[in-house]
Amino acid sequence: MLKKIGLEKLDALASALMERGELFAPVAGDAGVDFQRIDNPGDVTLDFYNTLRSPKEVFFPQADDMVRYRLTHDGVETEEIPLDFEPRIILGVRPCDVRSFEVMDRLFAGGDIVDPYWEERRKSTTIIGYAFDRVDPADFYTTFGIGAADPTGSDIFMIKGEGDLFLKGITERGEELLGSISVLEDVSPENEGYFEEKIAESARLETRILATEGVPEKLEAVFEDPYWIEAAAPCLNCGVCTYVCPTCHCFDIQDETLFGKGARRRIWDSCMFTDFTLHTSGHNPRTKKSQRLRQRICHKFSYYVTNFDVVSCVGCGRCIRSCPVHIDIMAVVEGAAALP
Amino acid sequence: MKRIETRLREEARRLLETGEVEVVLAYGRGYDDRHPMPCAAKTVADAERIVFNEYCTHNMARYLLDYPPGTRIAIAVKGCDSRAVVVLLQEEKVRREDLVILGIPAVGMKDPRTGRIIDASTTCGTTNPVLYDILLGEKAAEPDTSPYDVLEELEGMDGADRWAFWERELSRCIRCYACRQACPMCYCDPCFVDQAEPRWADKSPSLESNLMFHLTRFYHLAGRCVDCGECSRACPMEIPLYLFHKKVARECEEMFGQAAGMSVDDKPVMLDFRVEDADEILL
Amino acid sequence: MMQNPYIPIPVVVDKIITEVTTKDIKTFRLAFVNTEDEERFQYLPGQFGELSIFGKGESPIGIASSPTQPGYLEFTVQKAGVVTSELHSIEEGFRMGVRGPLGNTWPIDYLKGKNVVIVGGGFAFTTLRSLLNYMIHEDNRSDFGKITVVYGAREPGLLIYKDELAAWEARDDVDMNVTVDKGDAAWTGREGFVPAVCEQVAPGSENAVAVICGPPVMIRFTLPVFFNLGFSKENIYTSLEMRMKCGIGKCGRCNVGSRYVCKDGPVFSLEELDKLTKEY
User: Fold this and answer.
1) Nearest residue of A to residue C215 by CA position?
2) CB A269 to CB C253 under 8 A?
3) Which chain A residue has the Cα nearest residue C102?
4) Which terminus of chain B is less hemmed in, N or C, by CB atoms within 10 Å?
5) Residue C252 resides in a domain
6) Number of domains within chain C
7) Does residue B110 carry a pLDDT above 60?
């Protein structure tokens, strides 16, 4: 089904969605637009190119409590955090980010051990995707067959028209949700054509393209090449790229206690940090930043392919836009691939 | 700026050709003209790729400690960058004889995020390099404002409002450590925040943990921070860290009569003791 | 709902044995609080568990007991960081947790019908002890050929499992060779470095597999001995150490190339290690 709503009524849409579940949507902040849990429907904005940080936090929060505990004189009292989530809706996800959920599913929810924190959140969330209407030079998602107006993976897909927001049900779950929002208007037959037109227009948008053929094998072959030293020279070894990235998944598990109460939590970590692989014995297999940069690139463009048949990158361009020294990940991969 | 770029390339070429230095720390082209990258040129061919434009805001002093002691390095520095080099010299992390300092008087530097000229009141207020071997351009006029003028609003707030301001700003921190990594003076290994025993701060980005990290870091940089603003430019969440650093720098200057990194003959205030030092810090 | 792989299984510390004179290595015998957990915890030698103490954290430690010893799990732990230091300060009766069994196992099926050489150094004898006890159990002994063990430490006080060493030496179905780099006044046993002892006592490489665990310097000098004896790389196995957190291949920390040491290892043959990127 196809529905529409005037852009000026976005807060009414948000409000209606909030009645159907916990809503996560883009909100303008001091540094840019970011996904947040919505308390006030008026906070929602669809006026952005892409969010500063990826929406992975909706399924994989930066700090996620697993067990809360209280230290007592004769031991510890613990409370496992239950994994039943209320229905959730995430609104305004760009196609490259929708694809990133599927890329992460292969790690978190695939194989014989399933990560319940990711899986349960994924199962309870309805995704409302949002078509791009222009291209940023940093992006390269076309590389991965992701279209600017690609509804794959979304439950409902949206595109902006002239002053209106069009919403189309893609999956059964999406159709059900769409049908239940009374503030949405039906779309006239002429408008149906208009929606398809807008989708086709957006579908013609293309980003720059990274040649990925043979890259996984090539990266393994050039593992010892001094190229990595040059490529990593400007790198600061902060964690910005990994934190804004939709497909970076490295995490730490820490017991954090204050005045006898605390929690064992899962917290984002970054392979770029100097102590990421530091053993308690003092041994560290990756002491140099060239080794750490090499690890990040090889993990995303080679090892993940070996293990999960897909590149762990969706070309969203965030790492490039946010990197304090403007490192272009596409250029680093191309540089490695071009080595003799 | 084009003239500076040409001269920078000439000097880099010459220094590498004659073997006077092993590496030239300067700027190279990034994915477009508005996003130059820090560049370490090691050959004459590398030197051809050096650029200099209004977006070359990076403080190259940050990369000095990436090289083993004794490496001969040429480094392109603007005003505050040169002060950072001075602090590293004061702290004996590099030797003067290992460096060829290429000074650039930079006016009209722009922020790549916005494309607008960086407000001089938010930076160190030193246009001309304070230490150099070769000056690559004409000296320019120093600003007639104080680098601490921008603190007026913050200093006008009462304690509770100021605390609320910093709570609000620091709750946005995602603990990416871009600020620490971008800072030439943050070279501690290990950094206190990475230690497990004792655990000074938790890893998760809770407000208390963020405050512990940042407040401690601000004070670890007291008398050493040269106000280059790199930390604030590196921050993906646009937290105005420079405001706190300026406040601490102002207090240091008022108490001890010395600004960070102005002269190699000074010692950073926290590493030096003089009988006439103010006692306020003890009260 | 499926078991949450991040939640530790409750256990209680039944017994603590101080293994060495420097007192920084102890063996902890843990009993399951719930019998269903005990039944579910099916493991084989070579695997590890994440020992958990709420308020401190977790630490990945190889399982030192054998599944042929039902009713408990044993872990031999060296005092090193936050969690292991806490462990060294607790007493019998302490309640803690274990996640596991994690990792892959020593290649038991591959070892069947073959002569097995077990080589261990210092503290790195824990999962080898599990393997040895498993193989010599009356139900399993006939599955394996000749079993030769070489175990050495820097000095007599640093040998672990001292009582068992004597028991193994007394058996006639195990060729047990305990050695120290340097003996003391009371030491009546052998003196010699592990690689040298291997050279003396190892069987021929025909139909034999070597299982080696020890500090890097020991491994570096022991491997050539086995290569010289004709052991091929697919017949030499070792266990890698790596910084780990989740233990289930999700957190991305312990990888060597595309392999996760916690999931695809920690046991690897040298042939497999050769194919991996050189960063461990």
Assistant:
1) A281
2) yes
3) A113
4) C
5) no
6) 2
7) yes
Q: Does C241 touch chain A (CB under 8 A)?
A: yes
Domain of residue A305: give its range: 215-337
Task: Pick the closest to residue B87 from B271, B278, B276, B267 (CA basis).
Answer: B267
Contacts of A303 in chain C (CB under 8 A): 255, 257-258
CA of A302, closest CA in chain C: separation in Å? 8
Q: What CATH number corresponds to the domain at position C196?
A: 3.40.50.80
Domain end marker among A203, A223, A257: A203
Q: Please indicate whether, in this complex, the C-beta atoms of A76 and C55 are within 8 angstroms of each other.
A: yes
Residue C2, pLDDT score: 60
A265 and A310 fall within a common domain: yes
With CB atoms and an 8 Å threshold, state whether A279 touches C278: no
Of C67, C102, C137, the residue that ends a domain is: C102
**What total number of domains does chain A contain?**
2
Q: Please report, rounded to a whole number, the percentage of residues in chain A having pLDDT higher than 70.
A: 100
pLDDT band at B283 (very low <50, low <70, confident <90, very high): low
Q: Please indicate, yes or no, if residue C218 is contained in any of the structural domains.
A: yes
Same domain, A46 and A140: yes
Q: Which subunits count as partners of chain A given 3+ CB pairs below 8 Å?
A: B, C
pLDDT single digits (tens) A191-244? 888 888 888 888 899 999 999 999 999 999 999 999 999 999 999 999 999 999
Identify which of B35, B204, B238 has the shortest CB distance to residue A63. Answer: B204
Instruction: Give residue B23's region: left, alpha or beta (phi > 0; psi -120 to 50).
Output: beta
The answer on C196 and C88 residing in a single domain is no
* Cβ atoms of residues B83 and B261 within 8 Å: yes
Looking at the DSSP assignment, which residues form a beta bridge with residue C13?
C30
How far B280 CA sits from the closest chain A CA (Å)? 33
Cα distances (angstroms) measured from residue A125 to each of A21, A155, A166: 9, 9, 21
Tell me if A208 is assigned to some domain.
no
pLDDT number for residue C82:
93
pLDDT digits (tens, 9 = 90+) for C165-174: 999 999 999 9
Which of 175-214 (B) contact C at CB < 8 A? 196-197
Task: Name residues 47-66 of chain C within 8 A of A (Cβ).
Answer: 54-58
Same domain membership, residue C75 and residue C149: no
Bridge-partner residues for C170, per DSSP? Answer: none
| Same domain, yes or no: C89 and C129 | no
Confidence class for position A262, pLDDT limits 50, 70, 90: very high
Q: Which residue stretches of chain B are H helix?
A: 2-17, 44-47, 79-90, 152-156, 159-170, 178-182, 207-220, 230-234, 241-256
Query: Residue A162 — pLDDT band, cuts 50, 70, 90?
Result: confident
**CA-only gyration radius of chain A, Å:** 22
CATH at C18: 2.40.30.10
- Cβ–Cβ gap A254/B37 under 8 Å: no
- What 3 state SS string does A302-331 have? HHHHHHHCCCCCCCCCHHHHHCCCCCCHHH
Please check whether residues C92 and C127 belong to one and the same domain. no
Say yes or no for a CB contact (<8 Å) between A271 and C252. yes
Asked whether the beta carbons of residue B206 and residue A275 sit closer than 8 angstroms, the reply is no
Q: Which residue type occupies B49?
A: R
User: How crowded is the C-beta side of B192, counted as CA atoms within 13 Å?
Assistant: 14
Q: Could you tell me if C126 and C46 lie in one domain?
A: no
Q: Are residues C119 and C220 in the same domain?
A: yes
Structure token digits, residue A185: 């208007």
pLDDT of B281 > 80? The answer is no
C258: in domain: no
Model's pTM, two decimal places?
0.94
**Per the CB < 8 Å rule, is C249 touching A252?**
no
User: What does the alpha-carbon distance between residue B173 and residue B178 come to, in Å, rounded to a whole number?
Assistant: 10
Chain B residue numbers with beta carbons less than 8 Å from the beta carbon of C243 are none
Domain boundary, last residue among C63, C80, C102: C102
Of A71, A262, A303, the CB nearest to C257: A303
Asked if A234 lies within 8 A of B37 by C-beta distance, the reply is yes
Q: Identify the band that residue B119 occupies on the pLDDT scale cut at 50, 70 and 90.
A: confident
User: For C57, which residue in chain B has the nearest alpha carbon?
Assistant: B196
A9 exposure class (CB count in 10 Å sphere: 0-12, 13-18, 19+) = middle
